[in-house]
Amino acid sequence: MVISLQEHIRSGEQVTLSYQGSSVTSTDRGFLHPIIDYQVENLLAEPTVFSIPGTIDAALFTVNMGMVLEPCSDEGGGYNLGYYYLQAI
Question: In which residue ranges of the chain is pLDDT below 50?
Answer without folding.
Answer: none
